[in-house]
Amino acid sequence: MKRYTLPQSSFLFLLGLVTLAFFWILLPFSGAVFWGVVFSIVFAPLYAQILNAVGNRPNSAALLSLLVIILMVLMPLAMITASLVDQASGVYLMIESGQIDFGRMFQQVINGLPGWAVTLLDRFELTNMASLQAKLTAAAAQISQTTARYAIDFGRNAFDFLVSTTVMLYLLFFLFRDGRTLAARIKRAVPLASRYKKPLFDNFTTVIRATVKGNVLVAMAQGALGGLIFWLLDVPGPLLWAVIMAFLSLLPAVGAAIIWGPVAIYFLVTGSVWQGVVLAAYGVLVIGLVDNLLRPVLVGKDTKLPDYIVLLSTIGGMALFGLNGFVIGPVIAALFIAAWDLFSNADEFHGE
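The structure corresponding to this sequence follows.
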């Protein structure tokens, strides 16, 4: 084992200290930095094509790449968010005015269930209307308090989001322009042999591209398809439910069904049989098929991760890191598998 001199040990201590201090300084903008890095990796092929098209001028290529991202990603997201807020407000007013009465809807479901199902729910006190009313009242009070708190903090949150987006775009410009140089310096600084560094770095970039590309495309497809069928079946707030299904579809295999499944059951037990049958068939054969076909092709195939690893790492990542976890989880899983593969195949670790 190599022994370091006092000056070398002191320098390594200083190196670790200033590295921790630097990351601590960046912590308030960790989300902006993270998504700046993610976007730079995902859109690197686009930047390379634009760089060739403009005659190898990095500044112009980086600016044009940012413009494409703003037009393709940020502006549509802003318009969807504005429409979502408007539709969510409309749904809230319908709930407040009694047009949407969850108590009545729940009673309709109970009345439409077979006897054995009602008996089963009775054991868990889920058919007791007085108890349910108390729970709904408590939930409504909690939602009102949360809504009021967010309304008070909306201006500050909007300003923080604007600042974070600006920081991300500013950082993204330099990551596009100087990304290869920075990546080369990072690779050179990592204290591993080249035969270890290359597969690890390759896995890192491949998984980020595949995860973002695959999960976002699947989420968009499932959200759009779910919103379309809700609109055709005249379900209130189809855009709101479409966005919720898109977010939930980040959870492989179970996501969008959390929304369309209960709605289909509600239709079936309340007498709207054809709507329930159509929604159930559409959910399984169309929305579910998108997840079953696209996700393994776009995510599992590129990352070479088994489906169950993709599922568990995505759910675990989102539980620990929030929305960022749908990228962080599979990346950690892929690096874990790659590192253990390298270890198991390296002779120097096994005395061979």
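The radius of gyration is 25 Å.
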